[in-house]
Amino acid sequence: MRNKKDQGMESTTNRNSNARPNFGLRSKVALAGCILAVVVVVLGAFTRLVDAGLGCPDWPGCYGHLTWPDEAHEIQSANKAFPDAPVDGSKTWPEMVHRYFAGILLLVVATLTYLSWRSPNKRTLKQTNLLMALIVLQAIFGMWTVTLKLWPQVVTAHLLGGMATLSMLWLLIERMRKTPIYIPVDKYRALQRLRPLAFLAVLVIVLQIALGGWTSSNYAALACPDFPTCHGEWWPQADFQEGFNITQQIGPNYLGGFGE
Fold this sequence. Notes:
The chain is mainly alpha-helical. 63% of the residues lie in helices and 0% in strands.
């Protein structure tokens, strides 16, 4: 049998569920944005893996084109305009496809922000505004990735921004659930005790993503050719000061992990 406190909590939950605003279109737009954010993150990883980060030396176009040069005369003209960055068809399209999907995501988030402002219920307005600011910052990071020639600090920040965008979209979806999750009092208290561990786990995951981004942006993924050891050693000699040098100068071309 449930005690009065449990019954009261369930009753309150039911009332809150009945009074919960119908987000309708907003939740669908948020879900579409979340799926699109996954695609953008995967495309960003693919672009990096095929070394196409500088597949287009300009921004937001590609060699002055809305898409990318693929005709012989277009390629010839592009090579004249950018003699230090000749057209490589295998790298132009991954970069531009990633930009297209990122641009669509920006429009989806802008639509979500517009719907939030129009809604009489401002329950998620703060989160939506923050998400809009983040997606604009992501666009700026995307530009800097090219103009600063894959500066590792920007590339890593761009990755973290993409993961943060995906996380915030998912949180918005959860906040706009039509039916709230009911948790009994005893289980709720047990979950509260796990909050410090959950926070620590999230912090470790974020740190691991940042380390992965830093390793990738510095082209150090194959520094250790074996696994789980590194050159046959569990703790090889390493220059951590140089490896985590966040004061690397702006200006060189960091494609390949070194200035050219």
